[in-house]
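Message: Just now I want nothing more than another pair of eyes on a protein record. I am handing you a single protein, as its sequence and its fold in token form. As I understand it, each token names a local backbone shape. Take your time, and here it is.
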Amino acid sequence: MLGRSSSRPEGGGRRASRHAAVGGRPLLEVEDVVVQFGGVTAVNEAAFSVDAGRITGLIGPNGAGKTTCFNVITGLQKPTRGRVWLDGRNVTSMPVHRRAHRGIARTFQRLEAFGSLTVRENVRVAFDIHRGITGLVRPVAADIDALLERVGIAAYAAERADSIPTGTARLLELARALAGDPKLLLLDEPSSGLDETETDAFGDLLIELAGEGRAILMVEHDMDLVMRVCDDIHVLDFGSVIASGSPADIRNDPAVQQAYLGYADEADEADQAGEADRGAGAGVAYAESAVETTRTDLQPVGAALGAAPVGAADETTVLPAVPPAPREVNQ
């Protein structure tokens, strides 16, 4: 379906690039970026880079600042301070359309297709925008069909975009981004809505695209996909980069496991100390349960990182998650 099958070890090596960066510098550099909304710091001195011909993962719990970083890179969000470099050029103040012309394309966490247009028409619009007036007068039907075939949605070409499955719509977003032949491709949760087989094929397509020299920066919660296709991974937590490295490095990093597993260390310390009061232990379990309900992506990520769920090592220490007894109120 999507692309060609590819057997690739975790965190494969550098690929040859036809979208080479200037002077050996990374194609994209995010330099100490801070984004504040009033008194809230959404991104806190984030610094990372993305190389041409490589797939880079940007991961972290919900609310870590990943999409905000994407908005800063593409020009949708002005940083409070810090800089963004593309091909060795400072693009921090460059408007969105000029960054697009310089080779940046992205998909969105929220689908942005034209619902009343067909799948083919959506991709045609993208070709026309990127090619300017020449796209309006020269036939591009073959190019469109080839792109739809490449991402695996040719069967939906005549369907309205608002009637196709979510996973297919994600691939439509990718096709529209690829219509401009970008050198930097930003993907925000691209595998959402894909089943296991489609996700595997999608990973193969990403490897193929990077093999052509594109730099790919991907926000993704499917850790199996991230660990399989990414060459480099940066981990955000509360707006700060807490770890960077290969998939193997990230998998074994204690700070990453702590960020994803919440309060596992604290729970272990309580077990080792031998909590005497069962009621107090129940209160702790209830509090941990409440934390996980607000950070829904933590447990699956922890499993992919190879860490056991909290309390899984000794089932006898897991207490029922019951709320604490209500306090008496003086009438």
Q: What stands out?
A: The mean pLDDT is 78. The two ends are 69 Å apart (CA to CA).
